[in-house]
Recover the amino acids of this structure.
């Protein structure tokens, strides 16, 4: 009886943890079917766990600027592509293809393979 109760409790804990892990890694909020291009200036580069962020100031067609919060992968995943906490700095001009937020708010998800400096040069040296 005791071992059966232990098995049930461990199984329940694993299901609970697994559900929250899957929820955390959902990309449902991003419109991956309709990526957009952005050109802007880095305001902030947050190389933090669990995900990195680029805070990008984008000049709109009417001349105003809008701040976009762009979520990337984990620092450990980006480090495998050569990115570090010093890869970007405020003032860097970037071109990105992002998956925008479905809500229409100024934000989205970026992939390191779809980001370059405005002059077309890669962010990090190719492998």
């Amino acid at each position: 009886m005791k071992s059966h109760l232990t098995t049930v409790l461990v199984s329940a804990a694993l299901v609970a943890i697994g559900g929250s892990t899957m929820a955390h890694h959902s990309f449902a909020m991003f419109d991956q079917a309709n990526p957009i291009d952005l050109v802007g200036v880095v305001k902030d580069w947050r190389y933090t766990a669990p995900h990195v962020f680029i805070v990008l100031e984008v000049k709109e067609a009417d001349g105003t600027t809008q701040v976009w919060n762009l979520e990337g992968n984990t620092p450990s995943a980006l480090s495998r592509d050569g990115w570090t906490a010093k890869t970007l700095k405020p003032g860097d001009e970037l071109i990105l293809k992002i998956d925008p937020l479905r809500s229409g708010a100024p934000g989205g998800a970026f992939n390191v393979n779809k980001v370059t400096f405005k002059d077309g040069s890669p962010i990090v040296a190719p492998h």
The beta strands are 36-46, 53-59, 65-71, 93-100, 107-117. The radius of gyration is 19 Å. The CA atoms of residues 94 and 118 lie 5 Å apart. The helical segments are 2-24, 75-80.
